[in-house]
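cron nightly-structures :: item 1 of 1
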Amino acid sequence: MAGPAVLHAEDVGVRHGRVTALAGVDVRVHPGEVVALVGPNGSGKTTLLRVLGGLRRPSSGRALLAGTDLRRVPDPQRARRIAYVGQDEEGDLPFTAREVLLLGRAVRHPDWRPYDADDRAAVAALLHTWQLTALADRGLDEMSGGERRRVLLARAFAQGGDVLLLDEPTNHLDLRHQHALLAHVADAGGTAVLALHDLDLAAAYCTRVVVLASGRVVADGPPADVLTADLVADVYRVDARTLHDGRRTHVLVGR
């Protein structure tokens, strides 16, 4: 895709002690793209997301936000531009859903001034969109895992940033809410990078798929070009077939 990248992992390497988590990774994310990071456990998906979000400094290379090294972007500015939701975020805090979404709006007020009518209207709209109105005044510690997950994901949208970084966003969600979430991400018209395990969801809702294996990018491109039977079989060590229904690719694994 032509034009400047909003996020760029440039020749990134990351080591955890003696373990290499990423090696020579170069990934560009352009405005309006919904990019899936896929690969086996331990392939580097979470580490790459954290590097792109400025939460993990690479051991080599650099991460850029709109051309600026993330190490030079002040934390408050980064928080206003990048919304990150980890795969195992703490969800048992004694806050209501409404309060959690308002916390997402807090990054828009660097001087910590009180929430205003625009903030409360934005939160009300998100509660409706995410079908959380009935949970608005219930504490996170009183919710199911899936309900808490939906609240935390809605908080990312409350930030109103330039980029969403979501690590296994469908964790704990039932089938209906998995598809509702990803449809919302795809239809919002914004920029997002998602670490996913479900290849069918990646094919259905993402414009690009980046496949990682052993800390390296082994494929990068449109889902139909990348998610081939041979690649899936090689990367995941499973029997795989692909079907095309005229609209998109479906990945079939196993017998």
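cron nightly-structures :: done
The first strand starts at residue 7 and ends at 16.
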